[in-house]
Amino acid sequence: MQSTKKNFLTSFIIFFLLLINSHAVFANKINSLHPCKNLVFYFHDIIYNGHNAHNATSAIVGEPAWGNKTILASKNHFGNLIAFDDPITLDNNLHSTQVGRAQGFYLYDKKDIFTSWLGFSFVFNSTEHRGSINFAGADPLMNKTRDISVIGGTGNFFMARGVATLMTDAFEGEVYFRLRVDIKLYECWR
Ligand SMILES: *[C@@H]1O[C@H](CO)[C@@H](O)[C@H](O)[C@H]1NC(C)=O
Ligand SMILES: *[C@@H]1O[C@H](CO)[C@@H](O)[C@H](O)[C@H]1NC(C)=O
Ligand SMILES: *[C@@H]1O[C@H](CO)[C@@H](O)[C@H](O)[C@H]1NC(C)=O
Ligand SMILES: *[C@@H]1O[C@H](CO)[C@@H](O)[C@H](O)[C@H]1NC(C)=O
């Protein structure tokens, strides 16, 4: 008799815990419809072209057999890997005060169209933002806007997650481009 009572109580508690848990998952989904933080930045990439070593913020570090490290390869730059350390600004002016650096790489990864894969961090060191935001994802460059993932962060952006919408704001041949980054965080802990 006593044991049946105990069993009943145990299953009731388990049922109750499951209920709380499913409610938490549900609540999380509802919350995720609204960004908890919305940030806009620009970053500026000056690609080394054989003549601008002092000014360049990025360089080809890998190339296919038919290419070299001075000029981006033919076939939509397929196989070129570029390392960068680009200034981040709050507006579209290259000469505005830097709030941090965009650091990482892009890899041109398709022969027949112009597209790349991005893996980089925003490393902040300003009075307004400290810490980093980490990004990864496919960047089909011909699209007006491209979404990549915010996969994490540190400091002010501790464990952040969300989506960043990239837009090519300007480009000058194959020497300079500027991206506008519209960040929507759906998980904020700070
Ligand atoms: C550095 O690059 C920028 C962007 O292309 C350009 O406006 C500027 O004239 C360059 N400066 C030098 C010294 O090459
Ligand atoms: C690199 O490749 C480009 C285009 O194919 C060529 O014009 C240039 O001379 C090459 N540079 C070197 C240093 O091999
Ligand atoms: C961040 O900025 C402070 C103050 O300007 C400076 O002392 C510090 O070295 C910087 N840290 C990094 C990692 O750039
Ligand atoms: C890029 O544009 C194409 C054609 O407009 C579209 O089908 C595709 O979903 C877009 N990709 C991204 C990642 O936005």
From TrEMBL:
Keywords: Apoplast, Secreted, Signal. The keyword Signal applies. Homodimer. Gene3D superfamilies: Allene oxide cyclase-like. This is Dirigent protein. It comes from Lithospermum erythrorhizon. Dirigent proteins impart stereoselectivity on the phenoxy radical-coupling reaction, yielding optically active lignans from two molecules of coniferyl alcohol in the biosynthesis of lignans, flavonolignans, and alkaloids and thus plays a central role in plant secondary metabolism. The keyword tRNA processing does not apply.
